[in-house]
Design brief:
mainly alpha, globular, single chain
């Protein structure tokens, strides 16, 4: 057990920090190294390590990444953002529009990709405007995080929860759509309140330019394939194979070489997931996960709602310490033993996702937005934390209250 815990600690430290000063590894490489060390140390055999990798999670992510790659190639994200920005007039309305556009897109497509595509559109508008950049950039990041909580396919940690929990796509969305919508309202309202003076002093909104060219034929095929995937999710077909079927079908009918779409797949993210599955499998095999559960169990209590609230707060803290994806993988060792596992899975999805808004490194989406914004996205850690803490506390309190209310009424 000592070897498993040492490897686990080293891997999670590297994943949380993004790098280690004495090793030339990033997050995916650290996860892969941790997986290899679990086998090398004899914690897991090669066959056990392979069995620990959840192919359903990787398949669902791969399928959705392929669909998103074709939507990106057809200029769907650029065109959608342009249409929304063109439709609004005032600075305050624009803030709300960006929050909801980012959130609604992220509810169906992985939020990191949404941020990659939407941020340059917003930055381009800011370059031609007299608007304060920070509230609008935070609107993209916070909105995409909050909106992605609505469905299994909204973000990587939800993909893991969906495959580990067995909760169907439709049931997941039915339970978390309203809490996610409330979280979007809370995000927009808090940003509006915090930046009200900046918004009141804002000047003109710059021209939105000409409409970006759409590849209408490819877009129709991509949206059709996405519709096939969503229909399969709703009808209860296996999530991973439904997404892979839709992605493979689109590659077959897109009318262009699939190599470009496959090149846009985030392969390092898939390596990260595979490695972490093995690392967590080693922790479970060694008995360390059982010891961790025994340590936290007295804090959780026995009541369903108490467990949901306490574990949600635990998820917020844990997601900051080791990032939300590794935390969710580890939580998968504990949640099945709690009073109402289905409710706890949903509460964890909500908390681990909204916790991403707490710090700059709390979510990859935050880093993507601020990096793509360049000098316009400069914000200190502590200032981000002050804004993020209020956004996270407000949105999580509202969203979790709605989820628990749905549970009390028998809707969940």
């Amino acid at each position: 057990m000592t070897a498993a815990l040492a490897i686990f600690a080293l891997t999670y430290l590297a994943v949380a920090a993004g790098r280690l000063p004495f090793l030339s590894v990033d997050r995916p490489a650290a996860a892969l190294l941790g997986a290899v060390l679990m086998v090398a140390a004899g914690v897991l055999g090669p066959g056990e390590a392979g069995a620990a990798i959840d192919g359903d999670t990787l398949g669902l992510l791969l399928g959705m990444m392929i669909l998103t790659a074709y939507l990106r190639e057809a200029a769907f994200f650029r065109w959608t953002s342009w249409r929304v920005l063109r439709a609004v007039s005032g600075p305050r309305t624009l803030l709300w529009a960006i929050v909801f556009t980012s959130g609604l897109l992220s509810a169906f497509l992985v939020n990191d990709t949404v941020c990659v595509m939407v941020t340059p559109i917003v930055v381009g508008m800011l370059d031609d405007s007299e608007l304060p950049p920070l509230p609008y950039l935070l609107a993209v990041a916070f909105g995409s995080n909050a909106g992605s909580a609505a469905t299994i396919t909204g973000n990587p940690q939800n993909v893991i929860i969906g495959t580990l929990s067995g909760v169907s796509w439709l049931r997941f969305a039915g339970a978390l759509a309203l809490p996610a919508l409330a979280a979007l309202v809370a995000v927009a309202a808090v940003l509006h309140a915090l930046f009200r003076r900046d918004l009141a002093r804002a000047g003109r909104i710059g021209s939105r330019g000409a409409a970006p060219p759409l590849d209408r034929r490819l877009l129709a095929k991509a949206l059709g394939a996405l519709g096939v995937a969503l229909a399969g999710f709703v009808l209860g077909f296996p999530l991973s194979w439904t997404a892979l079927f839709a992605g493979a079908l689109l590659m077959a009918v897109a009318g262009r070489a699939p190599r470009e779409a496959l090149a846009r797949v985030d392969w390092p993210l898939l390596v990260l997931f595979a490695g972490l599955f093995v690392v967590v499998g080693g922790v479970a095999r060694s008995g360390a996960a059982e010891r961790m559960h025994e340590a936290i169990a007295p804090l959780l209590g026995e009541g369903t709602q108490r467990q949901a609230i306490v574990f949600s707060l635990f998820a917020v803290v844990g997601s900051q310490l080791v990032s939300n994806v590794p935390f969710v993988l580890l939580a998968g060792q504990w949640i099945p033993r709690l009073a109402d596992p289905d409710l706890l899975w949903l509460a964890t999805a909500l908390a681990a996702t909204l916790a991403g808004n707490l710090t700059i490194i709390g979510s990859v989406a935050n880093v993507i937005v601020l990096e793509l914004a360049g000098s316009r996205g400069r914000i200190g850690f502590w200032r981000f934390l002050r804004v993020g803490a209020l956004v996270t506390a407000t949105s999580l309190a509202v969203a979790l209250a709605i989820l628990l209310g749905e549970h009390a009424l028998g809707f969940v």
